[in-house]
Amino acid sequence: MSGKKKPFAIATKIHIQASAETVWAILTDFQSYPEWNSFITSMAGSPVEGTQLSAMIQPPGGSAMKFKPKVLVAKPGVEFRWLGNLWFPGLFDGEHYFQINDHQDGSCTLTQGENFSGILVPLFKNMLQEKTLKGFENMNTALKDRAEG
To answer: What is the pLDDT of residues 106-117, one digit of tens each?
Structure first.
């Protein structure tokens, strides 16, 4: 039996009456994040595999956190995924992802989630299940409003 622990995961989904391309364009227009995104309040860099981003997140009722994740996947209209960590790898790591399921009818479903691993994760589970999950939901709703508006 392996000693490796299963990551702690949270995920949200939202149906959006807009194309996968529209959702992707909003998701990767980092400069506009301050206009609509109350969860990821700033993002800099390029949505290109292998590049490093600079991000600031603000969970509802939580403290703002700055981190520099590395882009793992950037498939336009399909998936955007990065890996970030707190201070150094193995302490508190988060693999954040956005998956866009195109329904071929001008609508899509956005799944936003994160897999957390590292020795500090158990200490933050309650915050992740409450504040971080609420932050995902708030961002999803704001993105939906922007895409449909």
So the answer is: 999 999 999 999
Identify which of 112, 137, 126 has the alpha carbon closest to the alpha carbon of residue 38: 137
Measured in Å, how far apart are the chain's first and last C-alpha atoms?
Answer: 51
Tell me how far apart the alpha carbons of residues 134 and 39 are, in angstroms, rounded to a whole number. Answer: 9
- pLDDT tens column, 5-28: 678 999 999 999 999 999 999 999
- The pTM of this model reads 0.93
Residue 53: domain span: 10-148
CATH number of the structural domain spanning residue 43 = 3.30.530.20
Whether 37 contacts 31, CB under 8 Å: no
Amino acid found at 74:
A
C-beta separation of 135 from 143 below 8 A: no
Domain total for the chain? Answer: 1
Nearest to 49 by CA among 18, 92, 80, 8: 80
